């Protein structure tokens, strides 16, 4: 079975373009990791990241996370076949058609994914919920494809990834992401065992991220895109004028936490 194309130069170019999009629409992109997250991933093996499906931005965020933290792994992601037909350029960026409404479509997904994962440099980013779901909706069952894939891929590490897009102190939201504990499923692990683990591990990762988001502590994140306040229309124009009349520099931050964090950006931040 032919493996989908994933041209590195095209994926990286798309990431450069979407980084500007993300910066325009969000205040920052903060990331968290489990303490022992790197122990399995450090080994030379293929990866599957399973992600809760919050909204339209999810694939873009996944691509930026892969580029920053897992750039030695090739990007692949299943996508609805109709969407792939509409945006053909995605075929050269690691996306491949998904038709889970039929048995043949599900079988095709598993065959293609297993073929991809034979290469230890590969990574598949998948949303097992299927449709969009609120990040606090933890009861929705997963589609069965992920468990089938886990039960038949003993040399692959499976990693939960939780996403949220919360509003804090600024007019635009932030992106909050948390990588959970990776797991390899030994040969002979049943599909039901795999299904239970992937479901519970992603929901646990979501709950840990939610508690952190509710605490509103920037210090609990490292930043792929650091906090940066942006001027908001006439309101900040008045604030800037007031600062100018008083001979002070204008800081567009609307909260003390953003103001502190926005002053120091980590090395290499875009």
Topology:
Elements: H1 8-25, E1 29-33, H2 38-41, E2 46-51, H3 58-69, E3 74-80, H4 81-86, E4 95-98, H5 103-117, E5 122-126, H6 145-151, E6 156-164, E7 175-179, E8 183-184, H7 191-215, E9 222-225, H8 233-245, H9 256-262
Parallel strand pairs: 1-7, 2-5, 2-6, 3-4, 3-5
Antiparallel strand pairs: 1-9, 6-7, 6-8
Helix pairs in contact: 1-3, 6-7
Structural write-up:
- The protein has 270 residues and is α/β, with parallel strands linked by helices.
- It has a single domain (8-222), classed as Glycerol-3-phosphate (1)-acyltransferase, CATH 3.40.1130.
- Helices cover 40% and strands 17% of the residues.
- The chain contains nine helices and nine strands.
- The chain has helices at 8-25, 38-41, 58-69, 81-86, 103-117, 145-151, 191-215, 233-245, 256-262; strands at 29-33, 46-51, 74-80, 95-98, 122-126, 156-164, 175-179, 183-184, 222-225.
- Strands 1, 2, 3, 4, 5, 6, 7, 8 and 9 form a nine-stranded mixed beta sheet that branches.
- Strand 3, helix 4 and strand 4 form a beta-alpha-beta unit.
- Helix 1 (8-25) packs across helix 3 (58-69) and helix 6 (145-151) crosses helix 7 (191-215).
- The two termini are 38 Å apart.
- Mean pLDDT is 85; it is low at 262-270.
């Amino acid at each position: 079975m032919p493996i989908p194309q994933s041209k590195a130069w095209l994926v990286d170019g798309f990431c450069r373009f979407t980084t500007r999009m993300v910066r325009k629409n969000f205040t920052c992109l903060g990331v968290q990791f489990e303490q022992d997250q790197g122990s399995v991933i450090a080994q030379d093996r293929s990866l599957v990241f399973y992600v809760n499906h919050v909204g339209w931005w999810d694939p873009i965020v996944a691509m930026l996370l892969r580029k920053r933290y897992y750039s030695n792994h090739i990007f692949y992601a299943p996508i609805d076949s109709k969407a792939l037909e509409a945006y053909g350029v995605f075929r050269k960026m690691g996306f491949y058609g998904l038709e889970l409404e039929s048995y043949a479509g599900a079988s095709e997904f598993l065959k293609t994914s297993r073929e991809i994962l034979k290469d230890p440099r590969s990574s598949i980013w998948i949303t097992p919920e299927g449709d969009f779901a609120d990040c606090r909706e933890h009861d929705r069952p997963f589609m069965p494809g992920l468990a089938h894939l886990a039960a038949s891929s003993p040399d692959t590490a499976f990693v939960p990834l939780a996403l949220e897009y919360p509003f804090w102190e600024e007019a635009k939201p932030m992106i909050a992401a948390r990588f959970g504990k990776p797991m390899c499923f030994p040969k002979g692990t049943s599909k039901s065992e795999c299904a239970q683990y992937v479901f519970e591990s992603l929901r646990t990762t979501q709950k840990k991220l939610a508690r952190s988001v509710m605490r509103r502590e920037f210090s609990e994140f490292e930043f792929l895109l650091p906090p940066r306040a942006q001027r908001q229309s006439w309101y900040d124009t008045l604030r800037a004028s007031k600062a100018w009349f008083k001979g002070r520099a204008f800081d567009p931050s609307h909260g003390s936490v953003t103001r502190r964090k926005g002053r120091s950006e980590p090395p290499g931040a875009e």
